[in-house]
Amino acid sequence: MTEATNCCVLLIEDEPGDANLVRQYLRASPNLRFELIWRENLADGEQIIAQQKIDVVLVDLSLPDSRGLDTVRRIRKATRVLPIIVLTGHDDTEFSLKALDCGAQDYLIKTNIDTDSLVRAIRYALTRISLEKRLHESEQRMGMALQGANLGLWDWHIPSGKVIYNDLWASMLGYTLDEVGSDIDIWKRLVHPDDWPLVTASLEPHLRGETDLYSVEHRLLHKDGHWVWVHDTGRVLEWDFHGQPIRAVGIHQDISLRKASELRDHLLVSALETVEHGVVITDVNANIEWANKAFETLTGFSRHEAIGMRPNELVKSGKQDPAFYHNLWDTILSGNTWRGEIVNRRKNGELYDEELVISPVTDQQGCIRHFVGVKQDVSERKRMQTELWELATTDGLTGFLNRRHFMARLENEFARVKRNNHRVAVLMLDLDHFKQINDGYGHPTGDAMLQHFAGIMRAELRQIDVVGRIGGEEFAIFMPETDAEPAMIIAERLRKVLADTPLLMDKHTIPITVSIGIALMHADSGTADCVLTKADKALYTAKENGRNCVRVWL
């Protein structure tokens, strides 16, 4: 209020003499101009308050329609921002303090009023109500901030153990403020027993002035029996002359959701740590952000070495071509899961077969943010599969194809012949008088002779030629892109080498010869089995002509 400003004063006083004195005192003010409105009862005063702007109220507490502190309460109820000065005829300090507690800003004893005291009281009341208004607005803002942040507030008078809690502090635990009360012991009783050592470990050093802040996460018991996780922070604001804490203020933030999320994350990480498969999480650029222990075991790289690197910088073997990786990236960047097998390299340089599954992880907007790769070493499985395949497709003694798989390969070759119209030579071979070796030297020697003949065939035949063991001492060969004449040359060489290379075993020199029949496979041959039958007939002809010779089915 400046000196040039009019101050509108409402005087509620039923004594005309007292009202006249107040008017004279206000007129005598040398610096301020006052406009006085006088009413003799509270009801009329309330009507004025409702109808026009009043700067300050002077009120006697002995009115025809209201007496005592109820008068102040009624005016304060009508407006929270109007300064109230109580006029009393009694010098009763205790009563005057009660008036202040009810909402008055000041009080004056009528017998002691003069211009200076009255103007000073008005100035003080206006200043105080302004401060109270600002404080009220600040409290409202604070309350809204606490409400918006869902923060419970506590204000602890340490010597008495009394605590003021806000509504959120109580409702966070399912209570009302009346149920909570104002004793620090309620908080102590609600803290989880296992968490109390953590609380005291942070609170006591702070109360001794050793730390700037009290801060701890602990659990409080909800009214319905479950535990609420809170982040409890506070600070001592007042100390006495002896350095003892007087007042501390702090907040409780409900962190139950975060704790539940942390527990779930811990469970997931623990689960991923226990699985036997390697698990790796990367960003969208394939930079590794996390890997489990199985990844370390699988690759030989520690997590410390892996994080920040791309998998292809660690384990790429070079066995996959660019098209392989192009297909992989096309799949996962389109939001789909990629599954496949890949050859990777361990830290020590060893190659291994890996079964890999890569899945994209999207955010709430559907954008890919991470990739999760699950890696399994399948080298042993691949080895066993190879062994099983060999057992299923090859002859265990010679290593050549067994009859069933040889016939399957021959059928495939015949299909290729019909497409490309080229010729293939098919040979049937039978070791001459092989039964005599078994009978004379025993079956182990017979097996050794079969392996001896297999070694000669491997040495003499081309890589593209396919050999199968059809029966006991009977073999078949098909030679792609081969006509009758070159087939005869190869067969003759094979016959001659075997005849000139007896088996040496246990100081015995055991000779043997082979009979060979040849047939040509071409597009008009009918079936692969027909061609093999013709080669078998040519073999029969070779045996009829004295064995140890080659014959061609014409």
UniProtKB/TrEMBL annotation:
Q: Where is the PAS domain?
A: 138-210, 264-308
Q: Where is the GGDEF domain?
A: 422-554
Q: Its domain of life?
A: Bacteria
Residues in Response regulatory domain copies: 8-125
Q: Which SMART domains does the UniProt entry name for this protein? A: GGDEF, PAC, PAS, REC
Positions carrying 4-aspartylphosphate: 60
InterPro entries listed in its UniProt record: CheY-like_superfamily, DGC-Regulatory_Protein, GGDEF_dom, Nucleotide_cyclase, PAC, PAS, PAS-assoc_C, PAS-like_dom_sf
Q: Where is the PAC domain?
A: 214-267, 336-390
The protein's UniProt keywords, in alphabetical order, are: Phosphoprotein
Against PANTHER family, the record matches this protein to:
DIGUANYLATE CYCLASE DGCT-RELATED (PTHR46663), SLL0267 PROTEIN (PTHR46663:SF3)
NCBIfam families, per database record: GGDEF, sensory_box
Q: What is this protein called?
A: Diguanylate cyclase
Q: Which organism is it from?
A: Methylomonas fluvii
